[in-house]
Amino acid sequence: MANGSSSEAFVEFERVQKSYDGEKLVVKDLNLSLPKGEFLTMLGPSGSGKTTCLMMLAGFETATHGEIRLDGKSINNIPPHKRGIGMVFQNYALFPHMTVGENLSFPLEVRKLGKSEREKKIARALDMVQMGEFKNRRPTQLSGGQQQRIALARALVFEPELVLMDEPLGALDKQLRETLQFEITELAHRLGITVVYVTHDQTEALTMSDRVAVFDDGRIQQLAPPDELYEKPQNSFVAQFIGENNTLDGVVEEIGPNSCLVRLDDGELIDALPVNVTDVGQRTRVSIRPERVESNIERLHPDAHTLPAVVQEFIYMGDTFRTRLKVAGHDDFVMKTRNAPDQPRLKPGQEIRIGWLPEDCRALDP
Amino acid sequence: MTDSATTPPRQPMAALPGGEVTEGGPMLAADGRPLKHSLNRALRREKLRAFLLVSPLLIFILVAFVAPIADMLFRSVENQIVSETLPRTVLALREDENLPEAAPGEPVYEALYTDLFIAAEYKTHTRLGSRLNYESTGLSSLFRGTGRDVGRFDTDIYTDQFIEAEPALEDPVAWSNWMADDDIRAALPQTADVWDAWVKLTVEANEDDPLEEDVEDFVYAALYRDLASGAAPAGFPDVDVSGFETVSIKALFEESDEDWVDPEVWQVIETYSPAYTDGYFLNSVDMMNGPDGGAEWRPEDEQIYLKLFWRTMWMSLAITVSCIVLGYPIAYLLSTLPLRSANVLMILVLLPFWTSLLVRTSAWKVLLQQQGVINDTLVWIGLVSDTNRLTLINNATGTMIAMTHILLPFMILPLYSVMKTIPPSYMRAAKSMGANDWTAFWRVFFPLSIPGIGAGSILAFILSIGYYITPEIVGGTSGVFISNRIAYHISSSLNWGLAAALGSILLALVLTLYWLYDRIVGIDNVKLGG
């Protein structure tokens, strides 16, 4: 589960709970701490509590229980405007009755900065997002991507140490999203700011973050760097939520420290890495990434267990082949292979055998 | 981070659509015709369909709304009643040179005699009297009285003398033959004109056959005037009128009512003899046409309309402002509440809409009167002494309170619908940037809600400026609006011309304000919903 607090923590959630109606907890026992300068993404399906956490951090929602600390000080009773946290919203939230310059000037004016200093900071913030010449435009005259850059500049112009982003790229098209993903991470690292970023797009989470917190059902299911999250999911929710995934159900037959044998429901035996299983006879759900499935079983260890499979469909995708197989009674088992010269192009109906390295097949909770 | 990485490659955010370039001349469609033409043709069917769909309503509005309004507006300048009822008199007045110092000469009275005789038969003289009474009191009874007398004027001496001189002149059939002769008609112009009028009168008003009736005295009087001026047409009996006994018609009128020789009375008739008049409009702004023909102020004690217009304006403004003050917080609350509770509250706001206006206004009467609920409560609490109860009704205060209550929904609804479109994230963004609640409201929420204030204000102000029922019931004398005066002239004094002029001014005022508003705030900024 979530890692404990450290003395270096900049933002800290401790045993935080949140309920809106007094009957159901939206956030259940949240513990999270992140050091200064980290880019942390809260990822999860809608209703998983990730936005609520962000809003509690920003001060727009109050925690029902627990403590939220910023730079060592509890901020539970500090109103949002005194927290000094920058925020970027999904719908940009640029004030339509002000020009871009006036929008950026707003946080500086409420901080009672002098005019010349304001001008300097606005110019710097606009240059930072390459929108220098748009100072006198109205937000409605800008495209979605331009608006979000302005919103970003506005959240950064008063130099907050912590910036919260609530699905800031959700309303943009794919290409623009990718450009901005790069720009935002680059900017965050260059300025050394701490970012808490909320999204339901797993690609966005994987490409941008230092660490990702996967939310489901009001809890953090796994908090880990992107590669670990993808390759070593801690439970079946994370395994299924992040990337594409094949699952097979069975019972643990033999267990060792680094490998175990699982008997699938149709009687076949497979190798797996025990993650959430401890005892023989436990039910488990094993998870294998499509690209880790090997159809050329000569490449595997001679003792490796293999499974019979029937090709259902073969899709040519350019750089990869995507093969849908019928394995152990399931006909939605996917195998992804690189388009290499030695890679056979399978035909529907063809019978093959598949296998994998034990560490690529993770035996998780059922 | 390396230097090169700190400046990521610039990428245009969105490609601007390139301008359409045409090489002079209009765009052509595929068939070589101008594109505009083809487009119009393609859209014609659509347009026709749209027109047919709206046409029932359009016709209804034209017939039931636009036409009556146009007719009413026309009445504010229309004044044909004088020239239609007294056509000969109006013509004779133009020739007369005695006015304005003295009463006009005999020919005017001769013409008036004929006109009034005919008008009395048609009974239109009383209407004319009422109309001229608006301009000068007393004219109504003058016309009514003389209308009764004019049939008994002693002009029969001409009749008797003519019949004595030539018995054939008594025969209406002979008359009708003579009057069919163009030469005779040309020689006896007044007689011919009066004869035609008599024939028309006999047929239309009395439904008799002129060939069997006695010819009226005024025809002989006209014949005398024609013959006395030297006419001697061939084919007409040659009567020597030089020895005839005469009678002064002016004296007869003076005998009936001496006001007839008052130059001021004639001044009024002459002033209002043209077919169109600015009199109603001058009256609407407390002015009138003076004796010298120019506009002048009415006497101080007759001035009322400017005061009423001014009162209508400032009270409507005050009502609008109090609607904003009371409605804004409610609309704000409604827009921030969850939908379910907002809907319940909205029903409370709309409840007055579903109650009869009269019931609501009467309820205010019960609440506000001196022995009413509010005064009783204040006396009971001890805030007001029993001998010194507040006057809350039958004055401007009463109108303000009741009207504010009635117009409040018209302010709340547009405000609410505009506030509903302001995303809560704006306020959150402002707060996250360090603005406290008030600054966030004042700098962000309030400016964005101004279109709602504008729409609500226009609605409340325009409705209130023309409101009638409520001021009538709770306004007393010091709380009535110009519309109450208009209603009075429509239904009680029947001075429709003045009512129309007052209405036109009110309409112009509203349109001017609307135009000013458009110039200052911009009508595009007004949102009634969405």
Automatic annotation (TrEMBL), chain A:
<dbReference type="Pfam" id="PF00005">
    <property type="entry name" value="ABC_tran"/>
</dbReference>
<keyword id="KW-0547">Nucleotide-binding</keyword>
<comment type="function">
    <text>Part of the ABC transporter complex PotABCD involved in spermidine/putrescine import. Responsible for energy coupling to the transport system.</text>
</comment>
<keyword id="KW-0472">Membrane</keyword>
<dbReference type="GO" id="GO:0015417">
    <property type="term" value="F:ABC-type polyamine transporter activity"/>
</dbReference>
<dbReference type="InterPro" id="IPR008995">
    <property type="entry name" value="Mo/tungstate-bd_C_term_dom"/>
</dbReference>
<keyword id="KW-1278">Translocase</keyword>
<dbReference type="InterPro" id="IPR003439">
    <property type="entry name" value="ABC_transporter-like_ATP-bd"/>
</dbReference>
<dbReference type="GO" id="GO:0016887">
    <property type="term" value="F:ATP hydrolysis activity"/>
</dbReference>
<dbReference type="InterPro" id="IPR050093">
    <property type="entry name" value="ABC_SmlMolc_Importer"/>
</dbReference>
<comment type="subunit">
    <text>The complex is composed of two ATP-binding proteins (PotA), two transmembrane proteins (PotB and PotC) and a solute-binding protein (PotD).</text>
</comment>
<keyword id="KW-0813">Transport</keyword>
<dbReference type="InterPro" id="IPR005893">
    <property type="entry name" value="PotA-like"/>
</dbReference>
<dbReference type="GO" id="GO:0043190">
    <property type="term" value="C:ATP-binding cassette (ABC) transporter complex"/>
</dbReference>
<dbReference type="Pfam" id="PF08402">
    <property type="entry name" value="TOBE_2"/>
</dbReference>
<keyword id="KW-1003">Cell membrane</keyword>
<dbReference type="GO" id="GO:0005524">
    <property type="term" value="F:ATP binding"/>
</dbReference>
<dbReference type="InterPro" id="IPR013611">
    <property type="entry name" value="Transp-assoc_OB_typ2"/>
</dbReference>
<dbReference type="InterPro" id="IPR017871">
    <property type="entry name" value="ABC_transporter-like_CS"/>
</dbReference>
<dbReference type="InterPro" id="IPR003593">
    <property type="entry name" value="AAA+_ATPase"/>
</dbReference>
<protein>
    <recommendedName>
        <fullName>Spermidine/putrescine import ATP-binding protein PotA</fullName>
        <ecNumber>7.6.2.11</ecNumber>
    </recommendedName>
</protein>
<comment type="similarity">
    <text>Belongs to the ABC transporter superfamily. Spermidine/putrescine importer (TC 3.A.1.11.1) family.</text>
</comment>
<keyword id="KW-0067">ATP-binding</keyword>
<dbReference type="InterPro" id="IPR027417">
    <property type="entry name" value="P-loop_NTPase"/>
</dbReference>
<feature type="domain" description="ABC transporter">
    <location>
        <begin position="11"/>
        <end position="242"/>
    </location>
</feature>
